[in-house]
Amino acid sequence: MDIGTGLTVLGTAKIVEKILGPTAGYVGDGLKSLTEKGVENLRRIFRNAEARLGDSINKPGGIPPRILKEILNAGQFCNDELTAEYLGGVLASSRSPSGVDDRGITFLALTSQLSSCQIRFHYICYTFWHERYSRNWLRSSWGDELDSMTIALQYDFLWQNMGNYDPPMTEAFWMHAVTGLARLGLIENLVEGLELDFNNFAGAKGWILPVGTKFIIKPTTFGGEYYIWGTGNGMLNPWSYGRLPKDLPGTNLIQLKGEPKLLSSK
Fold first, then answer.
1. What pLDDT, on the 0 to 100 scale, is given for residue 265?
2. 188-194: which pairs have CB atoms within 8 A and are 24 or more residues apart?
3. Can you give the pLDDT at residue 1?
4. pLDDT tens-digit profile of 152-167?
5. Distances (CA, A) of 146 to 118, 140, 188, 210, 251
6. What's 169's DSSP letter?
7. Pairing relation of β-strands 261-262 and 213-219?
8. Which of 20, 54, 146, 201 has the fewest CB atoms within 10 Å, i.e. the most exposed one?
9. 194 alpha-carbon distance from chain centroid
10. What pLDDT sits at residue 166?
């Protein structure tokens, strides 16, 4: 299979070549074994990347070969829409003028480790934090600001925003999402246990918990960085995390229903 034919497998050849840059030269016979479903999944990821890049796709640039390798390996088996958005976001974020910025490897590995449930949980929480604190959030050295973003997640909010699963999503799904994200440093899970444990924890801080609270969590800088990369905005200067525009591309994939309760003793 020649390069041109390989690029066509992934989408419109000209667009795919613009995304990949010189790395397009690595596309070839390795795509022969892709199934029809695998091709469909990869094309969706490249369409997502194109949408995130916007007009910047016409500027010189490319991605490292390692990024392409991981996208091809993970992407062909990705049939979850939001996970595909994250993969497309990391692909777009990995495009740089020099084509050697491979930080996206970290976030592709994360995406491969996370279940679709965990990715959705990460997305809805950080979308709330972004919408609320888009001009003033997740600055790495200011722990007090992260503390002020602590939220109580209630049953109704989780039920309305975590999507439809078969079998129906239960608290076991939510616990899986929270503990998994906390283990990887993508959120901080502040308390677990019975209702009494939640009330004792909140009472010590002067918080009044809303009825139906299931989790008390706060963001982490790493979790915010993953959100920025997963939504296709990793090309932003990291120091811009504290003053991000509210209407970033990719941050409106899910319209939140309701919102968590902010908790702060200040």
1. 59
2. 188/146, 188/217, 188/218, 188/219, 188/220, 189/215, 189/216, 189/217, 190/150, 190/216, 190/217, 190/218, 191/216
3. 45
4. 999 889 888 987 666 6
5. 21, 9, 10, 20, 20
6. P
7. unpaired
8. 54
9. 30
10. 62
| Over residues 217-221, mean pLDDT | 91
In order of 101, 180, 219, the CA distances from 118 in angstroms are 27, 7, 14
Which neighbouring-strand residues pair with 215? 153
What are the φ/ψ torsions at residue 118 (nearest 5 degrees)? -65, -40
- Per-residue tokens: 20: 């990949």
Report the length, in residues, of the chain.
Answer: 266
Residue 189 has pLDDT above 60, yes or no: yes
* Nearest in space to 198 (alpha carbons), one of 150, 147, 164, 252: 150
Q: Is the peptide bond before 245 cis (omega within 30 degrees of 0)?
A: no
Among the listed residues 150, 147, 169, 143, the one whose alpha carbon sits nearest the alpha carbon of residue 158: 169
User: Six-digit token pair at 137?
Assistant: 């959030």
**Alpha-carbon span 210 to 143, nearest angstrom:** 24
Q: pLDDT value at position 139? A: 58
Asked if residue 38 has pLDDT above 60, the reply is: yes
Label residue 136 by pLDDT band (50, 70, 90): low
> Using CA atoms, how far apart are residues 192 and 199, in angstroms rounded to an integer?
11
| Confidence check: pLDDT of 173 > 50 | yes
Instruction: Summarize the chain as % helix, strand, coil (round to 5).
Output: 55, 5, 35
Closest by Cα among 16, 5, 237, 231 to 130: 231
